[in-house]
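[Q] Does anyone have a clean structure-token version of this?
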Amino acid sequence: MTIPEPLIKRLQSARSVTVFTGAGVSAESGVPTFRDAQTGYWSKFRADVLATPRAFKRDPKLVWKWYNWRSKLVAAVQPNPGHFAIAQMESLFSRFSLITQNVDGLHQRAGSKNVVELHGNLTKVKCFDENTMVERWNDDGQVPPKCPRCGGFLRPAVVWFEEELPKAEWRKAVDAIECDLFFTVGTSALVFPAAALPSEAAKMGSTVVEVNPTMTDFTEQAHFHLGGPSGEVMPLIVEAMKSAKTAG
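[A] Here you go.
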């Protein structure tokens, strides 16, 4: 694939860049998408039934075990070239933001430092009652484990159905849409409110670049659509950025 010349010129003049990633980026590492994670024993459960506060209250042990299984799946995979290319982009611009809908922590493992996690992080835990992050607890074999502060159940630090996005992370994401270049990578742009970010970036005057193997509902609004997996396209974009900045 060749990066279009008009996009290269915009890369050359850009001072601020935001990258917005979705499940497609992690799928290239072998992480199953949310609903594709229903295999084996878990195939008899609907993902949206397990991923709600009501489900946790009804059967906290079942929900904890499902997320523990998903955490092991994530731990067994590695970041792919798309993750590493995005991490490299962070060093190329004075202002860079990475917003992700993914909960697997692969961006951080690839070297990205300041990651806005709109849907939380599967590898972290918080107290269900207090809604506060918990790093250490007494592992006495109880499932789910108990919060060391209040004795309530611990839960995965992800955003479930029927829950709002974390306010602080959402504010960071909204602030980041005002940029020179906005990349939407590996996302179908269907999960709201996060899916509104590319459109809002375009309205704010950003040049919006969609990187996705197939067309999406957002494609017609994008200034550029680069059809391909992020692991192939993003490294090419980084090389084009480096060349453009050297030429500039």
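[Q] Thanks! Anything notable?
[A] The mean pLDDT is 91.
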